[in-house]
Amino acid sequence: MAKVTFKISELPEDQLKRVEIEGKGVLVARVGKEFYAIGDKCTHMGCSLSEGTLEGTIVTCPCHGSEFDITTGKVVTWVGKYPTIGRLTSFMRRDEPVYKVTLEEDELTISD
Ligand code: FES
Questions:
Q1: How many whole angstroms from 78 Cα to the centroid of ligand 1?
Q2: End-to-end alpha carbon distance in the chain
Q3: 79 lines ligand 1 (CB under 6 A)
């Protein structure tokens, strides 16, 4: 099991943070007292969701505006209208992977 650990003070309320687990970007969000972690690479065309915006539990991709629920990784709004020839994946609506979040005292551990 790969993991990354950091202090919760590094992630203020209603903010987003990118961490890496074995080279894979993971988006960590703090909503109130809860923490969530999903894939950081937008499943549309790969932009970093940690550079997007968070409203409630919905993160909006900064590139074309697809929206994901950070509690489930599921697509809420899909903006698959910027296809690139030869990159069929950009047509496909795909949810983000969800990572396990464990809070112990003031340390947060994200694992796959
Ligand atoms: S890369 Fe995220 S919506 Fe296009």
A1: 9
A2: 6
A3: yes
pLDDT in tens, 15-67: 999 999 999 999 999 999 999 999 999 998 899 999 999 999 999 999 999 99
Which residue type does 33 have? K
Residue 88 sits in a domain whose CATH number is: 2.102.10.10
- Give the residue numbers spanning the domain of 58: 3-111
Ligand 1 pocket, residue 78 CB under 6 Å: no
Q: Which pTM value belongs to this model?
A: 0.90
Number of domains composing the chain: 1
* 8, two tokens: 């919760």
Q: Which two tokens stand for residue 58?
A: 């919905």
Name the residue with tokens 């112990």. Answer: 104
Decide: residue 82, CB within 10 A, 0-12 exposed, 13-18 middle, 19+ buried: exposed
**Residue 92 has what pLDDT?**
76
Question: What is the pLDDT, as a whole number, of residue 93?
Answer: 85
